[in-house]
Amino acid sequence: MTALVQKLTVAVGTPDGAQLHATVAGRDDAPVTLVLAHGWTLAQAAWDDVAAELAPEVAAGELRLVRYDQRGHGRSTWGSAEPVSIDLLGSDLAAVLDRCAPRGPVVLGGHSMGGMTIMCLAAASPELIGSRVRGVALVDTSAGDLHRTPHTRAQRLQQRLQPGVLAFALAQAKLVERLRRLTPPSSPRHQRIVRGLLYGADATDAMVRRGAEIMHASSVRSFVAFYPALGEHDKRDGLAALTRVPVEVLVGEEDKLTPVRHSRQLAEVLPDAVLHVEPRCSHMLPQERPQLVAAALRRLLHAAVAAAGAGATG
Amino acid sequence: MTSTRSTPTGTQLTPGREVGVAIIGSGFAGLGLAIRLRQRGETDFLVLERGDDVGGTWRDNTYPGAACDVQSNLYSFSFAPNPDWPRTYSAQPEIQAYLRTTAERFGVYPHCVFGADVTGARWDDEARRWRITTSAGELTARVLVSAAGALADPVYPDIPGLDSFAGTVMHSARWDAGHDLGGEQVAVIGTGASAIQIVPAIQPQVAGLAVYQRTPPWIVPRGDRPVRPAAQRVYRRLPAVQKAVRGALYAGREVLVVGMAKQRALLKPVGRAAKAHLDGQVRDPQLRAALTPDYTIGCKRILISNDYYPAVSAPNAEVVTAGIAEVRPHSIVTRDGVERPTDTIVLATGFAVTDLPIAHRVTGRDGRTLAQVWDEGMVTNRGATVAGFPNLFLLVGPNVGVGHTSMVYMIESQLNYVLDGLRTMAEEGLDVLETTPQAQDAYRQLIADRSRGTVWLAGGCGSWYLDRHGHNTTLWPDFTFRFRQLTRRLDRENYVGTPAGARPEVAA
Question: A76, B315: Cβ pair inside 8 Å?
Answer without folding.
Answer: yes
